[in-house]
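Q: For a teaching session next week I want to show students how multiple molecules come together into a single three-dimensional assembly. I've collected the sequence lines for a complex. Could you give me the predicted structure tokens for the whole thing so I can convert them for display?
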Amino acid sequence: MGGRKKMWTPKEVTALRDGVRKYGSGKWSGILSDSKYGRALKARSNVDLKDKWRNLGAGTFGSRKKKVLAIVAVANDNDGEQEIVPASPVNDDDEGLFASVDTFILEAITSWK
Amino acid sequence: MGGRKKMWTPKEVTALRDGVRKYGSGKWSGILSDSKYGRALKARSNVDLKDKWRNLGAGTFGSRKKKVLAIVAVANDNDGEQEIVPASPVNDDDEGLFASVDTFILEAITSWK
DNA sequence: CTATAGGGATAGGGTTTT
DNA sequence: TAAAACCCTATCCCTATA
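A: Of course. Below is the structure for the complete assembly, covering every listed component.
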């Protein structure tokens, strides 16, 4: 029995949230029947949508303002070994560049936990 | 606060093994409901059974083996924009690049101490 | 038969204790 | 440091109801 739990991807969550905005909470089959959202949710059943929506509402994902928790990068050291290191802006001018990375990682974190 | 941990007795382990032999791995509540095995496992919950079966190392269930570290890199593209790219092959599916990179980042963060 | 809501169970990662 | 026991919870299952 491998991989019983299929974690929701940010893409799927977005499709679900957009679907609920259009059809309303509880219209799971309707959302799946919509080509725009159903395509991204192909691997999910109407019950799956219901369960995920319940979890989103009870949890902290919500619509709150998100905070950056961490920025990481992978670098090669002198021995050619790859390692994960904290990545932060070198100076103020770099903040703009890292902003998009922050958002990217933040989306990953919030969808993960 | 002493004695928080209740070590499993040989009698309990035997009941668990016999129960799994009859009902199968994953049927924890079923095992507890069976008078033959549930009696010896009265002090254990279904989650306890799951946890014990896992650290008994039985089969492929609940392997604690660590996943291969996913690697990502932060790079500058031709326009000078910063972006995160996979540093190892991505298994292409219909989720697209975003979902794949997202997974890499999640695993990187998970492994990051 | 199809669909949703709600309660319950399981899988897998994380944490604590020995 | 390792291993056993325990905790957290996203995901999945069962079933009453319409």
